[in-house]
Specification:
Blueprint lengths: L15 H6 L5 E7 L1 H8 L11 E6 L4 E5 L2 H10 L3 E5 L1
Parallel strand pairs: 1-4
Antiparallel strand pairs: 1-2, 2-3
Length: 89
């Protein structure tokens, strides 16, 4: 008879704060923004063209890092900060 050891899977932290901090400093995500979202984030002094897509790089906890006019620039910014970037549509 073979003795099988049970492998314990990593447990997901129970607190929301711990969950939000998973990947912090390692993972970032890129999401497309509307012109209104850019104005809300940066301020009314910025008037982005609604026809021009804008992309924001966020840390894993949702903190915005940068706003760019291309997905490629946002991903490049992640690499400059040693972050693994994922895209969210």
């Amino acid at each position: 008879m073979t003795d099988h050891k049970k492998t314990r899977l990593p447990q997901i932290p129970e607190s929301e704060i711990s969950l939000a901090n998973m990947g912090l400093g390692e993972v970032a995500y890129v999401r497309e923004l509307s012109a209104g979202e850019v104005e809300d984030m940066i301020g009314q002094k910025v008037s982005p063209d609604p026809a021009t897509p804008m992309f924001c790089l966020y840390l894993a906890d949702g903190t915005p890092v940068s706003v760019s006019d291309s997905r490629e620039a946002a991903v490049a910014n992640a690499f400059e900060h040693d972050l693994a970037a994922i895209n969210l549509n």
